[in-house]
C-alpha cells in the first residue's frame, strides 16, 4: 500500500462513485477500480459496497477513512514543505480581497513584494469580505482580507485599518440641513447596499434593525463607485467607509458623518491557524507586517 492507494480511496469515498472519482483524478475507471481492489486484497477487508448506482463505505471502510485523511494530509504537508526547501523562494499565494479594499491599500505593497520576490506568484481573487472569509476557512485561499470581528479561535490575523461608515447623499439632499445625522434619521430613505456576499450588507441591516427599523433596500451592487454614482443620481443613500469616501471624485455627492451609532469598519488580513502555510505565504505575511506597521491597538497601513 502506498499513498496513491489512499488518495484514490478518499476520492471514491468523497464522490461515492468509481466513475466520478476517476474523472476527478483524470484516470480511467478500470484503473481506479483495480487499485481499490488491490488495497482491499492487501488489507483483507471489503471497503465499499454497491447501493444502487452509488458505492458506500463499509464499517471497515469508515475506519480506514478516518485514518487515511490524516495520513494523506500529513503527506501533502510534507511534500509542500520539502518543495519550499527545494524551490527556495518560489511559489504562489492565493489571496482574497474585497473590491473596495484592494485598490486603496494593496497595489503599492504588491509591487514592492514583486520586486523583492519575482519568483513568487500572487493570485488575487476579488469577492465580498464574507465570501473571502469563507474561502480562507475552507482552505481554498491561503490569506484573505476580512471585516472585523471575525473568528479569533480559527484565524491568525493582522488588523490594519480602523475606520467608520459615512453617509453618502446627492448634493441637494434634505439631510444636509441637519447638524448631526443619526441612523434613525435614515428610516424612510431608500438604501443602496453591497450584495449579500459583502460583510457590510449584513452589518448595515443589523444596525438598522438594532435601531428599530427595517431598511428599504432599493439597489445592490458589488462596486462602491457604482453605488456612489447611484447616490449622485438620487436613487438612494449609501453608507461607505470614510476611506472610500475620500476617493469619491464626483461633485454630485456629499459626505455626512453618521452618529448614534457610529458603525465601525475595521479590516484585518487573516489566515488559518491550523493549516500549513507555504514559504511564499509566510513571506507575504512577514512582509505585510513590516509594511502595514504595528501599534498597541493593532496594525495599521502606514502612509
Automatic annotation (TrEMBL):
Belongs to the LysR transcriptional regulatory family. InterPro entries: HTH-type_LysR_regulators, LysR_HTH_N, LysR_subst-bd, WH-like_DNA-bd_sf, WH_DNA-bd_sf. The gene is cidR. SUPFAM superfamilies: Periplasmic binding protein-like II (SSF53850), Winged helix' DNA-binding domain (SSF46785). Keywords: DNA-binding, Transcription, Transcription regulation. It comes from Marinicrinis lubricantis. CDD domains: PBP2_CidR. Residues 1-58 form the HTH lysR-type domain. This is CidABC operon transcriptional activator CidR. It comes from the Bacteria.
Amino acid at each position: 500500500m502506498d499513498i496513491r492507494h489512499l488518495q484514490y480511496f478518499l476520492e471514491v469515498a468523497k464522490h461515492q462513485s468509481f466513475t466520478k472519482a476517476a474523472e476527478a483524478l483524470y484516470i480511467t475507471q478500470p484503473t481506479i477500480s483495480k487499485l481499490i481492489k488491490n488495497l482491499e486484497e492487501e488489507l483483507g477487508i471489503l471497503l465499499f459496497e454497491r447501493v444502487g448506482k452509488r458505492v458506500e463505505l463499509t464499517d471497515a471502510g469508515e475506519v480506514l477513512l478516518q485514518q487515511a485523511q490524516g495520513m494523506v494530509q500529513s503527506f501533502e504537508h510534507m511534500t509542500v514543505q520539502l518543495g519550499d526547501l527545494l524551490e527556495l523562494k518560489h511559489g504562489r499565494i492565493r489571496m482574497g480581497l474585497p473590491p473596495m479594499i484592494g485598490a486603496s491599500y494593496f497595489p503599492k505593497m504588491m509591487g514592492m513584494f514583486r520586486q523583492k520576490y519575482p519568483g513568487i506568484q500572487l493570485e488575487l481573487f476579488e469577492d465580498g469580505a464574507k465570501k473571502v472569509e469563507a474561502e480562507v476557512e475552507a482552505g481554498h485561499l491561503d490569506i484573505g482580507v476580512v471585516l472585523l470581528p471575525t473568528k479569533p479561535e480559527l484565524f491568525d490575523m493582522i488588523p490594519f485599518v480602523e475606520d467608520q461608515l459615512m453617509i453618502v447623499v446627492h448634493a441637494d439632499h434634505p439631510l444636509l440641513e441637519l447638524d448631526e445625522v443619526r441612523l434613525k434619521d435614515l428610516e424612510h430613505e431608500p438604501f443602496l447596499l453591497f450584495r449579500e456576499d459583502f460583510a457590510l450588507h449584513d452589518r448595515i441591516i443589523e444596525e438598522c434593525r438594532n435601531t428599530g427599523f427595517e431598511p428599504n433596500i432599493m439597489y445592490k451592487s458589488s462596486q462602491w463607485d457604482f453605488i456612489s454614482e447611484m447616490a449622485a443620481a438620487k436613487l438612494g443613500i449609501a453608507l461607505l467607509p470614510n476611506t472610500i469616501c475620500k476617493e469619491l471624485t464626483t461633485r454630485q455627492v456629499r459626505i455626512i458623518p453618521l452618529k448614534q451609532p457610529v458603525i465601525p469598519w475595521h479590516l484585518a488580513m487573516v489566515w488559518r491557524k491550523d493549516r500549513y502555510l507555504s514559504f511564499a505565504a509566510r513571506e507575504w505575511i512577514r512582509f505585510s507586517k513590516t509594511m502595514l506597521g504595528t501599534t498597541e491597538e493593532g496594525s495599521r497601513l502606514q502612509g
